[in-house]
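Weekly structure sync - notes
Attendees: PM, LS, DV (DV joined late)
Agenda: review two folding runs queued last week.

Item 1: First target. Sequence and structure tokens pasted below for the record.
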Amino acid sequence: MHYFKNYTLRIYKLFFSPALFLIILLSGLFKEGQAQSTELQIRLPDSISSPLFEYSGLAMYKSKLLLLQQYPVQTFPGIDTADIGRQLNGDSSSAAAHYWQIRHLDNIIRKLPFYQGFEAATVVGDEIFLSIETLDEDPWCYLIKGSINDSLIILDTTRIAPLKKLRKESGDSTITIHNIGFEAMTWLPARNRLLLLFEYNRYPKISHGFLVNKDLSQVKPILVNPIDFRITDLINNNGNIYGINYYYKGEFELFNPQEKIRKDDGYADWTRDCFSRIVKLNVKKNKVSFKVIQNISFNNDNWEGIMNFRNGVLLITDRHPESKMVFVALK
């Protein structure tokens, strides 16, 4: 009996000791730091693979994936998802390029003197919605809409919804954040509204996005819980809303991130490390919050677009360091 009591005491001390608790805690941190996603490269057609296309988002129309150019001239390019599937199944041949002609783009640009290109696209049925970024001189970004079919996009020049940019606190005043706009957008069927998020969301008091109806006549704010790094795109996959959360090392002074992320060799140094991950959004009645799903990498890949595909997501960069599309399985 005495032996049994001592044995029980030793087991208790082992499993409830501070040392063991520290080991378990550290092992979890190292596991988090080492977990990076496997990227499967999707080969784009040579005719639309140049960094000069500067892709800024992805949208889906039927079986065609639209590659949103920030500065289109007359067309938006795209590829068939069947070609993507063949590549993931082992066929190394490139996909064939598809194109949508764009009408009335010049009229839209003339209406917006500080136009700085498209940043997000969402297709709902036969309608397409496009978020427009502007130069710092304009305190507004803009949301437009149009119709879409298999080969043509007709922009509606009569419906342009202004979206007030968020401003960063600086001492007793506020300042415009350079080159930041409403870069993330998706459709919420349950609310019959578009959700748009500002690219930078670490404002403890004033972080918010917008809910917008389909005819762009109602623009209502929705609170957003602060999060480090940029939100560059969103996708709603049957009620599961995922976003890209990206940080570029050259933005340290601009964003001053506070989160500590472990790497194999310690913590990330935000003055020299880049970082990307996928987050999941919880959209309640009056607030958006975020949950980290998985890290992507510490590479300098400026992911600008996300689209659900099979058991994961497709991601695309703009032109930094190159135009690249990959598939990442969600864990």
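Item 2: Second target, run right after the first with the same settings.
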Amino acid sequence: MTKNELINKIIAVAKNEIGYLEKASNSNLYDKTANAGGNNYTKYWAEIQPSYQGEPWCACFVTWVLVQVFGKDGAKKLLKHYPYVYCPTMAELFKLYANPERGDIVIFKRNGTFTHTGLVTYIDGDYFETVEGNTSGASGIIANGGGVCEKRYYNSSLPGTKFIRPNYESFAVPDKPVHYAQEFLDRLVAAKKINNPEIWSDLDSFVTKAQALALVDTLTGGTWSSDEADASIHWVQPVIISLCGKGIVSDKDVWLSNPDAFISKALCLALIDAATGGTRAEYVGRAADHWARNCLDSLCDKAIVTTPHAWDDDFEGTVKRGNFLAIVCKAFGI
């Protein structure tokens, strides 16, 4: 979860409490409006510091919100102490900012003392909004006001008020980058050409001959039945027989030899070239530095391969699943 997502979650938790009224006694602490009174009894004290029931609770509310998002240990780390119950303590522990940002803890100053606190939820230039505990909906700074309210201020009208910026970054986890080939896997799944995406999900692992053959067989109409098919030899044997019948595979023994081995770039190029109409005439039998170059040049002419250097650096090298899915999608218009 990113820093911004964490701040959004903090604000959502705080806003969900708007309308909560402190209680006259320990009864109905978890009902927003029942047993309303002016004695500072709240569910926030009940969960954060029960022995403080009956005391002003604006800072306790901030602590409670952070606990909901980060847990007690996380809130303690963010607040640099636990629980946050006294505004001047924060002024001693943190750098104080003159201008707010979303997610800041605001500490309001009146008569030379920090007396009230809340969470900043919105900024627009000089204007900002908060959610505060132990306040009221009346304009201005209302400490010990009895409820959770959304408030609105202009910073320039609040001399001495400061903003504290907890280190939310320390809890942020950057989004895992999406693999470039994920879109190709998603396309093949959507086209119902891959029914078991978990087999392909590690896109940087290498493709086996059996996996490559099975997908190409599916993309070319599915496995043909044949009297030669014998899955007892290997599950992919009927697939190889099917591809032989389609004219895509010509030497079944090459493919039946250790079918669970990783497919080479050369065999991959040959398989895709054969499945897309075969090698172009000008390359058939042409002398080359490697037999697979004719397949590569054929695929380049078909505009199926656009980065030949990624293939001809080592024709006997392995093929990553992501690269295989990319060339398959290109070859079959998926």
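Discussion on item 2: The first helix runs from residue 3 to 16.
Action: LS to circulate a short write-up before next sync.
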